[in-house]
Amino acid sequence: MAKSKFSFFKFPSHEKQPGRRAQWARACARVDAITHKPWKPKDTVQYVYICSAHFISGQPSKEPGHPDYIPTKFATPGKVPTADECQKLRGL
Protein backbone atom coordinates (compact mmCIF):
# COMPACT_ATOMS: atom_id res chain seq x y z
CA MET A 1 0.00 0.00 0.00
CA ALA A 2 1.31 3.45 -0.93
CA LYS A 3 1.88 5.88 1.90
CA SER A 4 -0.47 8.87 1.92
CA LYS A 5 1.02 12.29 1.30
CA PHE A 6 -1.44 13.71 3.81
CA SER A 7 -1.37 13.85 7.60
CA PHE A 8 -4.40 14.27 9.82
CA PHE A 9 -4.66 16.42 12.93
CA LYS A 10 -7.22 16.40 15.73
CA PHE A 11 -9.48 19.41 16.14
CA PRO A 12 -8.75 21.37 19.33
CA SER A 13 -10.49 20.01 22.41
CA HIS A 14 -13.95 21.37 23.22
CA GLU A 15 -12.93 21.33 26.89
CA LYS A 16 -9.48 22.92 26.66
CA GLN A 17 -9.77 25.15 23.58
CA PRO A 18 -13.46 25.77 22.80
CA GLY A 19 -12.78 29.10 21.07
CA ARG A 20 -10.14 27.68 18.77
CA ARG A 21 -12.32 24.63 18.04
CA ALA A 22 -15.14 26.98 16.98
CA GLN A 23 -12.71 28.97 14.78
CA TRP A 24 -11.60 25.77 13.04
CA ALA A 25 -15.22 24.73 12.45
CA ARG A 26 -16.07 28.17 10.99
CA ALA A 27 -12.98 28.02 8.78
CA CYS A 28 -14.21 24.72 7.33
CA ALA A 29 -17.40 26.51 6.20
CA ARG A 30 -19.36 23.25 6.11
CA VAL A 31 -23.12 23.02 6.40
CA ASP A 32 -24.88 20.35 8.44
CA ALA A 33 -26.66 18.07 5.96
CA ILE A 34 -29.73 17.72 8.19
CA THR A 35 -30.21 21.17 9.74
CA HIS A 36 -28.61 23.17 6.89
CA LYS A 37 -26.96 25.32 9.56
CA PRO A 38 -23.20 25.90 9.86
CA TRP A 39 -21.49 22.67 10.91
CA LYS A 40 -19.75 22.36 14.24
CA PRO A 41 -18.31 19.21 15.73
CA LYS A 42 -20.40 17.76 18.53
CA ASP A 43 -18.89 18.12 21.98
CA THR A 44 -19.66 14.44 22.58
CA VAL A 45 -17.34 13.46 19.71
CA GLN A 46 -13.84 13.22 21.14
CA TYR A 47 -11.89 13.03 17.89
CA VAL A 48 -12.54 15.14 14.81
CA TYR A 49 -9.73 15.37 12.27
CA ILE A 50 -8.61 17.76 9.56
CA CYS A 51 -6.16 17.08 6.75
CA SER A 52 -2.72 18.69 6.47
CA ALA A 53 -3.72 20.13 3.08
CA HIS A 54 -5.71 22.82 4.92
CA PHE A 55 -2.62 24.35 6.54
CA ILE A 56 -0.06 26.52 4.73
CA SER A 57 2.88 24.67 6.30
CA GLY A 58 1.09 21.32 6.29
CA GLN A 59 0.47 21.32 10.04
CA PRO A 60 -1.28 23.47 12.66
CA SER A 61 0.65 25.92 14.81
CA LYS A 62 0.10 26.45 18.54
CA GLU A 63 0.99 30.15 18.22
CA PRO A 64 -2.14 32.39 18.00
CA GLY A 65 -0.50 34.87 15.60
CA HIS A 66 0.76 32.20 13.20
CA PRO A 67 -1.08 31.75 9.85
CA ASP A 68 -1.55 28.04 10.63
CA TYR A 69 -3.22 28.61 14.00
CA ILE A 70 -6.48 28.14 12.08
CA PRO A 71 -6.78 26.12 8.85
CA THR A 72 -7.05 28.48 5.88
CA LYS A 73 -6.52 26.46 2.70
CA PHE A 74 -9.82 25.28 1.27
CA ALA A 75 -10.91 24.60 -2.28
CA THR A 76 -13.61 26.71 -3.78
CA PRO A 77 -17.10 25.54 -2.83
CA GLY A 78 -18.03 22.38 -4.58
CA LYS A 79 -18.23 18.70 -3.87
CA VAL A 80 -17.48 17.84 -0.26
CA PRO A 81 -15.79 14.42 0.00
CA THR A 82 -17.81 11.70 1.67
CA ALA A 83 -16.58 9.90 4.78
CA ASP A 84 -15.73 6.89 2.59
CA GLU A 85 -13.63 9.07 0.26
CA CYS A 86 -11.77 10.56 3.23
CA GLN A 87 -11.07 7.09 4.60
CA LYS A 88 -9.67 6.03 1.22
CA LEU A 89 -7.33 9.03 1.34
CA ARG A 90 -6.23 7.94 4.80
CA GLY A 91 -5.65 4.41 3.55
CA LEU A 92 -8.29 2.85 5.81
TrEMBL record:
Top-level lineage group: Eukaryota
The keyword Ion transport belongs to this UniProt entry's keyword annotation: no
InterPro entries in the record: THAP_Znf
Domain THAP-type: 1-74
GO molecular function: DNA binding; zinc ion binding
Pfam family, one: THAP
Entry keywords, A to Z: DNA-binding, Metal-binding, Zinc, Zinc-finger
Protein name: THAP-type domain-containing protein
Source lineage: Eukaryota, Metazoa, Chordata, Craniata, Vertebrata
PROSITE patterns, A to Z: ZF_THAP (PS50950)
